[in-house]
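Batch job 17 of 40 flagged for manual review because the log was empty.
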Amino acid sequence: MSDTGFPTNVHVLRPRKVSLSEKLDHFLDEHGLEIKKATEPHDPSRPKNINGNAMDCAACGEAEYLTRDYCRCGHYLRGQLEDEYLAWENQVHDDHNKLAEVIALKIKPLRYLFAVGLPFLVGPMLYLNFWADSFTLYPLLWMTPGILIGGIVALAERILTRPLEASAHFLNTYSIETFIDQRFFQLKVIDQ
């Protein structure tokens, strides 16, 4: 037997714990100091984080090119990108629906205002059609407030519905390239 021979029950032996104080032991148990990992050098074959052609892998956290189906760690990147696209698409539709509800609430009082101006248009027309013997200037003067109210309501409604029309146009024309462009610009803004 050599000098370094150990008894067979050496695996059950535990090192003796030296304690300075109970408070210090409690602090060290709660906030144990972790050994810092040495920062690994950046792999030059991987893209930089802020890049329109790259995304961060959800599994390893490293940047990888969008054209790759799988990350170098084995994670399925195309599925991750499609999940992000579907979430973005649902968000775009939800934003459009919320905008439509807000604009509908803003337009409702305008339609009531148009209903107030409607008698100024209908009354003189009925007068000219049934009771007037000849065309006079009097019914036209009565139609002027109705025409002004109708024009103001139409102009205000047109101005209020512009964002909704722009949102509807975007819904009809977006694609995955639009998603990738918006994703890149959001990452660029967050980085700055």
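Reviewer: the log was empty due to a logging misconfiguration, but the result itself is present. The mean pLDDT is 82. Unflagging and moving on to job 18.
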